[in-house]
Structures are given as C-alpha cells and as structure tokens.
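<derive_structure_tokens>
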Amino acid sequence: MHTDTERCVRAVQSKDARFDGWFYTAVLTTRIYCRPSCPVVPPKPRNMRFYPSAAAAQQAGFRACKRCRPDASPGSPQWDERADLVARAMRLIADGIVDREGVPGLASRLGYSTRQIERQLLAELGAGPLALARAQRAQTARLLVETTQLPMADIAFAAGFASIRSFNETVREVFALAPTELRQRARPDRRAVVPGTLTLRLPYRRPLNPDNLFGHLAATAVPGVEEWRDGAYRRTLRLPYGHGIVALAPRPDHIECRLALTDLRDLAGAIARCRRLLDLDADPEAVDGLLREDPGLAPLVDKAPGRRVPRTVDADEFAVRAVLGQQVSTAAARTHAGRLVRAHGTPVEDPGGGLTHLFPPATALAGLDPESLAMPRTRRATLIGVIDALASGELQLDVGSDREEARARLAALPGVGPWTVECIAMRALGDPDAFTPTDLGLRRAAAGLGLPHTPAALIRHSAIWRPWRAYAVQYLWATDDHPINHLPTD
C-alpha cells in the first residue's frame, strides 16, 4: 500500500487507525516516522514519505515518534492473509527465529537461499531480515525498559542484543532517547504490578468481538494447561528458552496481557504467539466489508462485527487436540487431552492459579502406548500417526510452513479427514480462507439462514466469501447457543 501515495496521504490526513501497521509515514522536516493515526497535525504532503515497515523507516534515518509510538502498531494483516515466501518469513521473524538461529536458520526453515530471502524482503519491505529483527529487538527492549525495573544490562541481552553498546546505540537511534530516559518517561500504570510479571497492552484494529474468541478458548480449555480465571484466559506456554504463563483479558481498546516468563529472551516470541492466538493483526473492516456483501451473512455481521478466528500458540499441540476431538463432544475432547497432559506433560508452578503443566510436545508423545488411550482403535492409530509425523519432522506446522504442503501431508495420514485438515489449517496454520463444509454445526447454521447447506453447495456458495471463509465460519457457528460463543461471566 505504501506505493499508493494519494491513498496514504488521505489516511494520514484523516488519522485513520485502520491503516496502522499497513504503512509508516516519515516526515522529512522532523526526521521522525509515525503511524497513520498519529494525533499531531499532519505534515504537508510534499514532506511525507511512506515506508512498508518500521525497519525500512529506521534504515532511512528516521526515528520513532514519541507521541504515537509507531513501533507498537498492530502488525500488518498481510502476513496472516498471504502464504508466499515473504509472509512466511515475516511470521518466522516475529517468532524470533533470526535472533535464535540467524538468517541461515530462517533460510533453512523456508527452504530458500539467504540471498533470495534477503532480496525478496528488501524488494517488498525495504529492509532485510537482520534489519527487521533489529526493529523487533528495539520494540522488545522498549517494553522491558518501560514495564520492568530490570537492570539495563539484563534488558539488553533479554531483548536479543549482542552487547550493551549495541543496545544503547539502537535505542538512541530508534527512539531518540537513552534507555534511562525511556524509563523515566514511562507512565506509572505501564509498570508491572506483580513481581516477576510483565503487564502489556496488545493493540488491535477495531472492532473486536471477544465473545466467540475468548468463549471458544475457555470452553475448550485443557485442564492444567488452560483456564478462565478472574476475567482472563490463562494458559501455559512452551517457549524456546523456557516456559511462561500468560493471562489475556479483553479491554475496550486493547487486550491486557500479563506474562510471567522463566527467561526474558522469550518475550518477543511470547507476544507474537499471543497475538496470533487472538488473531489481533486481522483487518475487521476488510473482512466484515466483504462478508456483508452476502445478504445471508450481513445480519450476523451487523449484529456482532469484528469476530476473530481463535487460533493457537502451538501448532503441534493443536494438531494433537484436533485428532482427540474427532467425533466427540467438547467435554470428551478436554478429558482426553487432560489425560495426556497429566501423564506426559511437564509440571509447572502457578502460585494462586490452577495451571499445572505444559502440553507435551510430539517428541514426548512419540513412544505413547496406543492401548493406554481410552478411544476407538482407529482413532488411536490416527493419533499415533499424527504424533509420529510431527516428531519425525515429516509434518511441519510452524508459522513458516507452506500451508498447501502441510494440508497435503495431513490429508495423506490415515484417518485424517477433510474436517480435521481444515480445522488445523484454520487454527494452527492461521489460514484465513480455511473452510469446513462438512461441519454439522456450520451446515445447520447455513440451513437456518436459508443458505445452501450440503457440503458441495456450501463450497460453491463460499466462493463469494474468499479469502475470508474462516471468518464466515465464525459468524455461522455463532448462531448456535453453545458455550464457545459466549464470553465467560465468572
């Protein structure tokens, strides 16, 4: 979008928050860059330059605006919508892969040369993987400076900087303030209120309807791994350097996120996973605008706009849970998953809460005895097949995976049918166009609205919902009076 100068100028002049994260506005006279909705008086169009990423603006010599904090904008919705190399790379960079494994590690995950990845990122985003990772490190550092009382040296290494010197130089360059000055400017209410816990605000594009989002997560929560407590969805997180516990609560203009981590180097990755879980980078105006064009869906969208797709923080975990949930009730699926967790999960401590374990990774379940599973023999075989494929690396479902290749590998596993494949594509792979035409609840909702309701007819009709069919599913499911569609009240 940053190449459409007229459209960008209109967005800046109208302070349109819908475009935050789509592009960044750099001002030649002040040498700062802002989000489109910056509250200051808009500069003259001849003094504006537009960049596709904060990293590109930083590389061009601009610093972040202290007023609108462009580094804290919602992420671009393109990276969830698209499935090409650049989108896959951006999802992996957000997950921290460059900081952990370098650019060669990113290239290995994607199956391309480092040179080709750098060339494509530069061409589209104006910055290479190192610059994009550096911008993310700067944002992580800012969060730690403003929300903790950690020594600056600890923050530097936790944010992924190789030295205190590079930390100081980057913070000064990006924010035009020393780290100590950033801390002094931080508002008191942004500081952690519980020792060892970070309290953050996760931004999103309005509107956001929390009912099905948090309702689904709470109603399907695996005992010991997830819970709804004190108005927040809480769960354990298995992270690259350790583990964590997160509490997420909906607020009128943000999601309150309380994180407790065993290793602060996991902060950026944990935030990325929480944003992905709640689909916070979605563009509801674009989604709802398209779905409203169908007269059958329009009343549902008008009644409760801004529905998101509840996703996952761990794709492998969700794949296992999807198989456990085949042809059984929500309660039964929770029971099966809870048994696996108690038998094979890693114990954790949660003072004052009810979380007890991390969900076991596929490698821990690889030696599972099928006879220990209280389920039909065919579903046992399916579960073991999925676990073995995940543990061996034959099936890869991480954020950088090729969605169509993952679909094909899933469909080739015995007992994994189209419903399971599309549920995993929707929630684990984050495909906004995933669709489950054989789902009974979906077909019942379609029939009640006078829409085609056989699988074949639904597929044909759903062409007008593309590329947002996963969101159409959420609106249709919401017509049922099921706990997954209601925000918990206790």
